[in-house]
Amino acid sequence: MQIANEVSGDLATLKLGGRFDFHSHRDFRSAYDKILDTNTVREIVIDFGEVDYLDSSALGMLLLLREKADGASKRVVLAGLQGTVKQVLEIANFGKLFSIRA
């Protein structure tokens, strides 16, 4: 999986690409840990626009990020959902746990 990290003011964006699965764990955690340590950031947008696959471990990683973000007074938003990625997140009821943007 590819991850691009952008920070602009109080908004941070993690742009993901490729397969979001168990093998992405270290890279994903490393990317969001940097953001969680940035005091000015209040909102973290996870951009799924280029993700073509995610599995149950990816769902777990998102839940762990949400828990850590809550502890750091930051909000997590999921964006760019499409295709099977969108279906998986809808079936898992992630819309009740995260804000979702088009």
What does this structure look like?
The protein has 102 residues and is of the alpha/beta class. It has one domain (2-101): STAS domain (Transcription Regulator spoIIAA, 2-Layer Sandwich). The chain contains 3 helices and 5 strands; from the N terminus they run E-E-H-E-H-E-H-E. Strand 1 and strand 2 form a beta hairpin. The model has no long low-confidence stretch (mean pLDDT 95).
Summary of the model, kept short:
This protein has 102 residues and is α/β, with parallel strands linked by helices. The chain is built from 3 helices and 5 strands; from the N terminus they run ββαβαβαβ. It has a 5-stranded mixed beta sheet.
Q: How are the SSEs ordered, and which strands pair?
A:
Elements: E1 2-8, E2 11-20, H1 25-36, E3 43-54, H2 56-71, E4 75-79, H3 83-91, E5 99-101
Parallel strand pairs: 2-3, 3-4, 4-5
Antiparallel strand pairs: 1-2
Helix pairs in contact: 1-2
